[in-house]
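Service request form, structural biology core

Requester: graduate student, group of Dr. S.
Request type: structure prediction, single chain
Budget code: on file
Notes: please return the result as C-alpha cells.

Sequence provided:
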Amino acid sequence: MSSSIRAPEAGRSPRAVLAWLEDAAAGGVHLPARGGVRFVPWPQALREVRRAAAELAAAGLGPGDRVGVRGHNCYEWLVLDLALLSIGAVPVAFPVPDFAGRPNAELIAAYGLAAMFAGPESRAGEEGGPVAPLERLLDGVEVAPLAAPSAPAGPQVRVADRDVFTLAFSSGTAGKVKCLLLAWPGVAALVQAQSAAFPLRRGDRIMIALPLSTFQQRYLCYLAIRNDCDIELTTAARLIQALPLARPTIMLGPPAFFEFAETRYRNLPGRSRVRRDLLAALAIVLPAASLRLRWRRAVFRDFHRMFGGSMRLMLIGSAPVRPQMLRFFARAGFGMYQIYGMTEIGYIAWNRAGRNRPGSVGQEVYPGSVRLAADGEVLVRHDAHLCIGYEGEEPDEVAAVLRGPDLVATGDLGEWDRDGYLYLVGRKKNLLITKGGHKLQIESLEHEFCQAEGVCQAALLRDGDGLALAAFFDGDRGAARASVLGRIAQVNTRLEDELRIRRLALVEGPISADSPLLNRNLKINRAAVWDEVAGRLERLPAAPRASEE
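Core staff response, request fulfilled:
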C-alpha cells in the first residue's frame, strides 16, 4: 500500500517559490570571494528576478518552453532559475563536467530547447541567437529563442501524469548520466517535511557548494527562501576557503566536504590527539547535555573555526560515511547527522536530534514508505516522489527503477534494526557473488581499507583475474603501504581465488572535491579512477590458492 503524502497548497505550482520570495525580508544571498563577501538581500533578489522574468517573456519565452542553464555556480544562475519558474518555463540544468566538449547547438537540438544560457566555460566565444551569456543576465537578457524548437531526441517514459517543472541530470558511481523529469508536488512536500524535522531560524546560513545543476542544491535554495534564511553560494573547489568568510550555520554535503577536518586531526602529533581526546572525554562529568556540548566545542574550537565557527547542523550523505568520521565530529561537538536520499525520490531517511543512531541513515522521512525486497533492496513507496520519468532511457531501464507511479527501487541494499533505523550495506550492482555462492559487498571491503594508516579513500575495481585496489593516502607512504598490504593479506584470506586483490595503486593525497575522479555529487567515479590508475597498478605477490591453504 502506498503512503499518501499530503502536499501543502504550495504543491500546486513551482511559482510558490516566488510567493515565498515575496515574504522573505531578513535573509539573502552571500557570495564569498577573495575580496570579501557580497550580500544581496532577498528584496533586491526579488526585483532582479521580476525584471529578468519580464525580459525573458518579452523575448518570447513562456510556459512549457525548455531553457538550458549551463554554467558554474553564480548569483545569475539562481536568478535565472527563479525567473524561469515564475513564467512557467522549464529549466534544463546541465552539469558542466558531464557535458564538457558538447556544443550548445547539439544540446539545444537533443533536448528540444528554446534557448540556452551558458557561462563562459560552456560557450565557444560569442555564440548569439538562442545561446545567451549567463554571466550577463543582470545587464539585460540577450537571447533570441527558437520559434519552433525541435522535439527532444530521446524517448520520454513517464510513470505519472504530472506537469514537469524542470529537467535534471543524475550520475552514479559508474558515471552514466540520466535525464530526469521532475514534478513540483514532491518538492513542496519535502520542503514541508524538512522544515518540521530540522526547524530553521531567521539568520540561519545554508551553504550551497555543489553545482546548482544538482537538483538537491536548488532545492536547498528553495528551502532557504521558504524559511527566510541566507544562502552562502560558492563552489566545491572554493569551499574550504569560503567557509571562514561565509560562517554557515547549516551545511549538507557528501563526506568529501567534511573529510579535510578529520584529516587534519589525524595528522596531529599523537600526544596532541590523545590530550585533546582526554579533555573532550571530561565532558561526561557535566550535568547537562548543553554544557557537555559547549565543553567539546571549546576543546575543538580551532576545528569549528575551519567551518566558520557558527555551524550548528551538518547533514552528511550521498556516499558511504566512515564510522570514524562520525565519531570524530561527535567528539568535537558538531551536530552531524547522516541522511539518505536519491534524486528520483528526495530524502528517504534521516537521523536528527534526539533520534540519531550513528552508522545508520536514520528513520523514514515518510513513515511506512520504505520496505526491503527479498534480496534486501531498498524500495520506497509513496505518492510524492520528485521524479515522474526519464528522457533518453529505454523503457526496460526506466521500469527497473520506477516500478510504477509510486514505487521506486533504489538499487541500495539495506537492513533494519529493531527500532526502525535503516542501515545501508552497499549497492546491489556492487554485490560480488563467488562461484561458491558467497556474497560480498565492495563498499564494505573499501571501508576496511579506509581503516589502514593514512588512507583517506579506497576504490576496489574489477580487474580481469581478480580485483585491483586504488588507495588514496595522506602522510607517510611507507607506513600507508605496509598497513594497506597487511589488510590486503587479511581480506584475501576471506576471498575465493577469482576475487582476490591482485594489483595495487597507492596514490598520494586525498581526492579533492574538484577532482575528476569524483562525479558532481562527489561520489567516487570508478570508471575515472580506473583510467587514472590503470597504468600504475603493481602486481602483488601471488597468495596461495584456496585449495592450497
